[in-house]
Amino acid sequence: MPNVDRRNFLKLVGAGGVGAGAGFMLSESRKHPVEHLVPYPVPPEEFSPGIATWYNSVCSMCSAGCGISVRTREGRAKKIEGNPAHPVSQGRLCALGQSGLQALYNPDRITGPLVRAGRRGEIEFDPTTWEESFAELANQLELMRTAGRGGGVALLTGGVRGHLASLLELFMGWLGSDQLLHYDFNHPATLYAANERFFGESNLPYYDIENSRYVLSFGADFIGHWLSPVHHGLGFGRSRQARDGDRGRFVQIEPRMSLTGAAADEWIAANPGTEGVLALGIARRIVDQGGYQGTDLDAWQAALDGYAPDAVAEQTGVLPDTVARLADSFAETQPGLAIGGGAPANHSNGVDALVAVNALNHLVGNIGVEGGVIFNPPPAFGPEASRHASLARMLELAEDARAGRIELLIVSNTNPVFNLPEASGFAEALADIPQIVSLSSFLDETTAHADLVLPSNTYLESWGDDTPSPGVGFRVGAVSQPVVEPLYDTRATGDIVLELAHRMGLDLAFPWPNMEEYLKYSWREVWSNGTPDPSIPDFDTFWTSVVRAGVWGDETRAPGGEFVPDAGVVEGIGVGAPEFAGAEGEFPYALHPYLSNGLHDGRGANLPWMQELPDALTGVVYGTWIELNPETADELGLSDGDVVAIESPAGAIEAPVLVYPAIMPGVVAMPIGQGHEEYGRYAEEHGVNPINVLAAETEPATGALAWAATRVRLVPTGGRADLVRVSGEARELGREIVQIADAGTPAAAVNAPAVAAAGAGAPGVRLASGARAAAGIDAPTAGAEAATANTRLNSIPITVVNT
Amino acid sequence: MGVSIVPTLRVLKPVGMIAGVGFVGLLVGYFANAAFFPGTTPVQPIEFSHTVHAGDYEIPCLYCHTQARRSPSAGVPSVNKCMGCHAIVATDSPLIREVARHYENDEPIPWIKVHDLPDFVHFPHNRHVAAGLECQECHGPVETMDRVTRMAPNEMGQCLTCHKDMEVEHGIDCLTCHK
Question: Which residue in chain A has the smallest CA separation from B118?
Fold first, then answer.
């Protein structure tokens, strides 16, 4: 035996034991982890593990109402695409729509009902149960209803259409409350009003960009986020490329080049808020040249009397020659289409400006024709009257709250605390409402004020239906079906309302057990009113076919009738000077806020994909920046990354400067979407919210927020911030990106984007010498100067037209 | 005693000695685990016997693993498939009562995967069934196993050998399996 004493023996035994244990564990760790095969107890029909199932549904990420097809595997949504059968999206989908998955799987979703534990706004919640919440809330609602105080209930939702909107109408009707409001920052209220005034119907027509040969857009960023960007983008592509040898021409008029503007043949900056004046200047030229031969020619001549070329040039800063050229080419290229949106539509003279744009369409005979403005039939279902709330209506609600007339506010799928200017005082007014219930899926700024949170399903887990707006010129209805089971203890908004109604004893008025049954019941009517299809013998077959297809409706556009505007309308045409909050002396720059393509009005900020999506024109990721023309930046001695305070009459925020050549001097632009204080881990602590410095200025005809009507001043703070940018080198570096062509060759102007400067001396786009040097070329003319500006965007090949 | 290890041990420093014994222990532990607990024959939550079903009663594999012919994943039968027979067959067996309990409570059975490929390997069952392969070529004689054992190593060499022997088009391209 070896001579090992007891002490060493124990040591050796210990070492051997530890070694063996470690070896065992090492071997264990190298094994495959145990994986389970978990079959369904009873599988859904036609389910095959490993094989994807696609469900058609409707996107709810913005108000366009695109049809979607969602790929699911083993009951989990994996990918969202456009539904090829849906006439709006036609198989395409935008980035925001694609990232709907990240709303579904968002780690910051509210997973069950919550009740406030701390003080209002402190965001301390305790979990509660649906049973308890429903019992209490239904009891409270029923007490208010029977006591005749149902009018003290306000229901504030995002843009809701279809039968969910009808259900909410019915519910609020039973409560005896008319405080049912939809609030959507991007709702085109002024466009509805302008159409009502000019066409006599408060609806959005179909803008047939696809078949148009000339699109004249006044600020409408129709590829980015105007009305129905997926459909417009598709139509624009076809207008450019689908007709052999007949490439559609497109001119964009806006103070800051948007994604849409960057795709234009000609980009023109008019002084902010004077786009409507420019439209009338073009109209006058068309009338003067004999382009209009209607019986009411005299009335038009009288109405356009004040829009002589010189007067228009003085107001808009666009030279008379340019106006004449635009008018002549627009009148002779048929069919053409004039559209208006964005900043011109959301100015103090927004409705007048959009009426002027409608007038242009009428003057060249493009109403009711293919490639022009085509009227939509009324929505196939859903409430007739719009419940969309303007800023003025929201302020009324706030006033009612302050006066104690609102006892209970239910907020669903809208975030007014973030999307209304701080100056509106809406957030403070919430403190005067005794009880606030939020149906939001996320803890956003408005839900932070809630006393009770009853989390809704996301749209991918809910039943619903939709009538897309704007429509496509014929009746379209779409059914939104759940593509997955709810991931958490949440309920669909419609089911919450129905459950409350049942518990209030309103079973007779609300005989449907859930939203799905309500939809089926309502669609019976759609079925019996629709065109009979002999291949569909009964409702169940019809319903199954609609749900499977995701869409229902007609397939062809009815020919438009003759349109003649009322004499009174023609007489009343005119666009006044824009009114800004803030005197020009004190606040020298017009603030041009714009919806970010990915984050939209801020709703996309909690989606990591959207946060990581670089801005299409500046290449900036994350944060908020302020875009300055190089000339403005030079005046203030600022360069990229210098932090400035942006002060308006309504407030102040800070943001880093980004020198952006495609913006007018005198205008500064900021993207909307960032600056969330709540709304989850991905949204918080990025950038600032420019809505907060907007004055509560309204467009007088609609009461809508005139978000383009605030002036600001810039005060350098001395601070620096790093802008995260993915764009490459701004200089040309001998790559011959900028080419000089002669204006005498129109082909050059048609085949490549060109920038027309309003002319040196006039307040068009000019470029500081610094930027010219940066572009690395000699720029002999004003036109070339403006174009070198573009080289600082993203290496877009540019042809300069020497004018 | 012919050779004493005492002199050797004496020369070693005590720390080295402990480390040496520890290392031997490590190897013993490692291989003991691999030898005695290979994890290739897991104990299933319900002791389903392939010998009875596939062996004695000669139920074809694809009767239960019906997805194998149309899906990349062969799948295991849903609980109601079991109950399709066992609503009337062997209803008094304790194992079947356990299956019935799962069915009545709408509770899935968490079977343990025996043949588990890494996530970076794409193995479509449907293509292999379509090519006429017998299940047993990879899975072994399952009809003789009360507890299913992983027979094949399921490693890349096995795939490549077979793809070469069968002269599969693009059979040895990386992207055929790793995609």
Answer: A32
* Residue B160 maps to a domain: yes
To the nearest whole angstrom, how far is the Cα of A484 from the nearest Cα of chain B?
Answer: 18
Give contacts of A29 with chain B, Cβ < 8 Å. Answer: none
First CA to last CA distance, chain A: 107
**Chosen from A8, A24, A45 to mutate, greatest number of chain B CBs within 10 A:** A24
Under an 8 A CB cutoff, do A42 and B21 touch?
no
Contact A35 B116 (CB under 8 A): yes
Q: Which strand (E) or helix (H) includes residue A761?
A: none
Q: Please give the residue of chain A at the shortest CA–CA distance from B14.
A: A8
Report d(CA B88, CA B116) in Å as an integer: 33
pLDDT digits (tens, 9 = 90+) for A630-657: 999 999 999 999 999 999 999 999 999 9
**How many independent structural domains does chain B possess?**
1
Dist CA A573 CA A640 (whole Å): 43
Q: Say which of A19, A41, A43 has its CB closest to residue B103.
A: A41
Chain B residues close to A16, C-beta within 8 Å:
21-22, 24-25
Residue B2 has pLDDT above 90, yes or no: no
Q: Closest by alpha carbon to A443, among A165, A673, A112, A98?
A: A112
Domain span at residue B121? 50-76+111-177
Residues of chain B with C-beta less than 8 angstroms from the C-beta of A42? 78-80, 106
Which DSSP letter does residue A193 get? H
The answer to whether the beta carbons of residues A575 and A276 sit under 8 Å apart is yes
Are B79 and A42 an interchain contact pair (Cβ–Cβ within 8 Å)?
Answer: yes
Considering chain A, what percentage of its residues have pLDDT values greater than 90? 76
pLDDT band of A530, cuts 50, 70, 90: confident
Contact between A626 and A593 under an 8 Å Cβ cutoff? The reply is no
**CATH fold label, A190-374:** Dimethylsulfoxide Reductase; domain 2 (3.40.228)
Tens-digit pLDDT profile for residues A544-593? 999 999 999 888 887 777 888 999 999 999 999 999 999 999 999 999 99
Residues A22-45, mean pLDDT to the nearest whole number: 83
| A48, A73, A485, best to mutate vs chain B, most B CBs in 10 Å | A48
What is the 3-class SS of A62-124, one letter each residue?
CCCCCEEEEEEECCEEEEEEECCCCCCCCCCCCHHHHCHHHHHCCCCECCCCEEECCCCCCCC
| Interface membership of A75 toward B (CB under 8 Å) | no
Contacts of A26 in chain B (CB under 8 A): 26, 29-30
DSSP 8-class letter at B51: I
Q: Does A32 touch chain B (CB under 8 A)?
A: yes
CATH topology of domain A53-105+458-490+514-554: Phosphorylase Kinase; domain 1 (3.30.200)
- pLDDT at position B10 is 67
- Domain A113-184+388-456+492-511, CATH class in plain words: alpha beta
Residue count of chain A: 803
The answer to whether B146 and B50 are in contact (CB under 8 A) is: yes
HSE toward the beta carbon, residue B18, CA cutoff 13 A: 11
Nearest to B175 by CA among B101, B93, B120, B94: B120
Residue A42, pLDDT above cutoff 70? yes
User: Within an 8 Å CB–CB cutoff, is residue A51 touching chain B?
Assistant: yes
In chain A, residues with a C-beta closer than 8 Å to the C-beta of B77 are 39
Domain spans of chain A? Answer: 53-105+458-490+514-554, 113-184+388-456+492-511, 190-374, 589-725, 738-802
Please list, residue by residue across A184-209, b when 16 or more beta carbons sit within 10 angstroms of its beta carbon and e when fewer do: bbbbbbbbbbbbbbbbeebbbbbbbb
Class of domain A589-725: mainly beta
Mutate to test the interface with A, among B12, B28, B30 (most CBs of A within 10 A): B30
Q: Is residue B128 part of a domain?
A: yes
